[in-house]
Each structure stands twice: as structure tokens, then as C-alpha cells.
Write a structure and sequence with these properties.
This protein is α+β, with helices and mostly antiparallel strands. The chain has helices at 169-187, 224-236, 240-249, 291-309, 355-360, 369-381, and strands at 6-7, 10-16, 19-27, 33-38, 63-66, 73-76, 111-115, 144-146, 150-155, 194-201, 213-219, 254-257, 261-264, 273-279, 318-323, 337-342, 344-346, 349-350. Keywords: Carbohydrate metabolism, Galactose metabolism, Metal-binding, Nucleotidyltransferase, Transferase, Zinc.
């Protein structure tokens, strides 16, 4: 069975241990796309149940407004104000459907990805007078555009509790394959300028569903954070990421180094807990990673998250975001990077973005990065997951 070979039961993606991760495409009752990704060692049958719910029409595409002070685009997505907020456990919208739980996923699954019911961007795409703002160089008053794009939910597991760090290696590998596949598919949609997979974990960072899941935003513009990165590359030179990696690998902020990836606390960390994960070669996004790189990532990334949780007796809230190169520019200079950040500065204390950070964007660090790296190395050494050193 070859890569991307269509079979009667689905599409075979990367092989792991001689067996493929299989992709199965379906449609929800209101027309939204649903994709199942089956583990290599899945116990599920190929067939899936249909979505037989009666659903309201999808909300209209939101509108972006330009902030003339910064040139940034702000999506005003009022439909998101009605999304589910911390529902009771028996009404989990990301668990497989049951008679008492009319959830978003009609059938049992390993990993499931579907279009968000209340998206910040989309469902409209470029065309019919709609356009991305990727080449828009103007700033003005009262400027507005349609919030074209795509927002998707990635369910890591049918289980109702957990996070990416609690997944086994096989399931983590399936999620990584789903991220890579969706990055490739979404990058090819008309008007998409950047694809951003991420996970929010913990109510302290705004999580409204405890089910282990992440999201993927496909923007019709290059994000403000990436625009600042591009400016740094233009000021420093095209070797910025390679030089950062070499600099950190020789320093005291390294946490773990594998064959393909390195994890470290950055020199100028903004957050009390902040970890960056870089591939050892230039690769623009997850779609460009090799099977060997994805295999190692499925071991290394969950271990880093478990080490973060090992710092305290209770789970640590965090945001984990995959910073990928824009779809149409700087792909030979911007390297794929995972950034994990947490506001937790002590067992019972959080860092709040107060005056300087919120008003001026000027961060003040509470914990020396070297201290955080030391604590994470100690926590990593105490893990009893049986995986040993990478």
C-alpha cells in the first residue's frame, strides 16, 4: 500500500511499522466536512455511522475590520459568543454520539477532524469577490473584508479527559499525521495565507471544553506575530533559525535533543514556562516533515508536556502552537516551530498580562529561563514512561 493510495475503505497516509494511518472523509448533517484518521493499530471497523441530526443553517461568514493604528485585521465573529461553554460531562460535543449526547462526531473514532460550527474564519473562501489580504499593503479608516478561511477542530481521542501529553505514542503519531495532512489540504484552499494548528489546555487559558482536542485556524492573512518574525529575518539574515538552534544546543537552556528535534527554553522567554521545539533541518511546515521526523515527534513532544505537568502536583495550563511559514512566502527562511507557553509561575500563582504586557506589548519575565530549563530537565528525568533517553 503506497502513500496516498486510495482504498475502498479510505486513503492510506504515512506507514508506521509497516501499517498505514488511514484517512476517511465524511460529511456532517449541515454540510461541514468530517475526517476520521485511524491509528495503525486501530480496532475500529472501516464503516462509520451517518450524522442524522437536524441542525440549523451554518452562520454567515464573519467580517474582519482593520485596526488603522497597527494595520492588523480583527475578525468580528459574533456567532462564537453562542458556542458551548463547559458543558456537563454527559453532553460532551466532541465525544462519539450517544442517545443522550447529540455530539458533533456521529461515530466512534481514533482521531477526528471537523469544521468548526462557530468559526472565526469561513466557511467562505476566496472567490466571488472575496479575497485574502496577503498582498494588501494599505491602511485606512473603516476598512472591512470578509473573514474568509477555515477553522477546524481536532479531537485527539474519544476519551472525555486528557490532553496531547496523555496520549500514547501510536495515537500521538496519528494526530501528527492529521496535522500534516490538514496543513497540506488547507494551504491549497483559495485565499489561505497561513495555517496554524494549536492546543489550549486548562480553563486558565480560556478552554471551554475539557475533551482532549486542538484546533486549526487557516487565516486569510499572515499573522502579526509572523510579520514581526519576517522583519527580524530581514534585519538578521536568512540563517536566523539555524543560528538560534546552534546557539541553544550549546547552552544551559536545552531540555532534550533527539535525532531530528530539539526542545529548549528560549533565551528571552516571555512566560514563566516556555518551551520551543525546532526541527534540525529547514522545513516550512508540518506537511514537509518526513515520516522519521513525525515518528520521533510522537515520542518527544508528549514527553515534554508530561515533564511540564511534572513540575507541580496539578496539571499545568498551557497553549501549544505550531508556528508555520506562510503559504506563499519566506518558506526557505521561516522554519517550523512549536511554542509551548504557560502563565503558571508557581504552584498556586499565574502570570496575568497586566499593564505593560497588555497595553504596550512589553513583557517582563518572572522566572529566569535557565531556572525553568533546569526544573524541566529534572522533571523529565523523573518520568517513568519507560521510553528512556531519546
Amino acid at each position: 500500500m503506497t502513500l496516498e493510495q486510495a482504498t475502498p475503505a479510505g486513503i492510506a497516509l504515512s506507514e508506521v511499522g509497516g501499517k498505514p494511518i488511514v484517512k476517511r472523509e465524511h460529511v456532517l448533517a449541515d454540510g461541514r466536512q468530517l475526517i476520521y484518521y485511524d491509528d495503525t493499530d486501530t480496532t475500529l471497523a472501516p464503516s462509520r455511522l451517518p450524522d442524522e441530526r437536524l441542525l440549523d443553517p451554518r452562520p454567515v461568514t464573519a467580517v474582519m475590520r482593520q485596526d488603522a493604528l497597527t494595520g492588523e485585521w480583527i475578525s468580528i465573529a459574533a456567532a462564537r459568543n453562542n458556542r458551548v461553554f463547559l458543558p456537563p460531562a454527559n453532553l460532551d460535543p466532541l465525544a462519539p454520539q450517544a442517545p443522550d449526547n447529540p455530539s458533533e462526531v456521529p461515530s466512534v473514532y481514533d482521531v477526528a477532524v471537523f469544521e468548526n460550527r462557530s468559526p472565526s474564519f469561513g466557511p467562505e473562501l476566496a472567490g466571488d469577490g472575496r479575497a485574502s489580504v496577503g498582498v494588501d499593503d494599505g491602511v485606512g479608516l473603516g476598512r472591512a473584508r470578509a473573514s474568509i478561511g477555515r477553522c477546524e477542530v481536532v479531537c485527539f481521542s474519544p476519551e472525555r479527559e486528557g490532553s496531547f501529553g496523555s496520549l500514547g505514542t501510536s495515537r500521538a503519531r496519528t494526530v501528527i499525521e492529521a496535522w500534516a495532512d490538514r496543513t497540506a489540504v488547507l494551504s491549497a484552499l483559495p485565499g489561505i495565507e497561513q495555517v496554524f494548528p494549536f492546543e489550549n489546555r486548562g480553563e486558565q487559558v480560556g478552554v471551554t471544553l475539557h475533551h482532549p482536542h486542538g484546533q486549526i485556524y487557516s487565516y486569510p492573512f499572515v499573522s502579526p506575530r509572523t510579520e514581526r518574525l519576517i522583519a527580524s529575518i530581514e534585519a538578521y539574515g536568512p540563517t536566523l533559525f539555524a543560528d538560534i538552534l546552534a546557539f541553544e544546543q550549546q547552552g544551559e537552556r536545552m531540555i532534550v535533543q533527539g535525532e531530528h528535534w530539539s526542545a529548549f527554553v528560549p533565551f528571552a522567554a516571555r512566560w514563566p514556562i516556555e518551551v520551543h521545539l525546532l526541527p534540525h533541518r529547514q522545513v516550512a511546515d508540518l506537511a514537509g516533515t518526513t515520516s522519521a521526523e513525525r515518528d520521533e515527534l510522537a515520542v518527544l513532544y508528549p514527553r515534554v508536556l508530561r515533564a511540564i505537568d511534572g513540575l507541580y502536583e496539578t496539571p499545568t495550563p498551557y497553549i501549544a502552537g505550531w508556528h508555520q511559514a506562510p503559504v506563499n512566502s519566506h518558506r526557505d527562511e521561516i522554519r517550523l516551530m512549536l511554542q509551548i507557553t504557560s502563565p503558571r509561575r508557581a504552584a498556586d500563582r499565574l502570570k496575568f498580562l497586566a499593564g505593560s504586557e497588555s497595553a504596550m506589548g512589553a513583557f517582563i519575565g518572572d522566572v529566569p529561563p535557565e531556572t525553568t530549563a533546569h526544573n524541566l530537565r529534572e522533571s523529565l528525568a523523573k518520568l517513568t514512561d519507560g521510553l528512556g533517553a531519546l
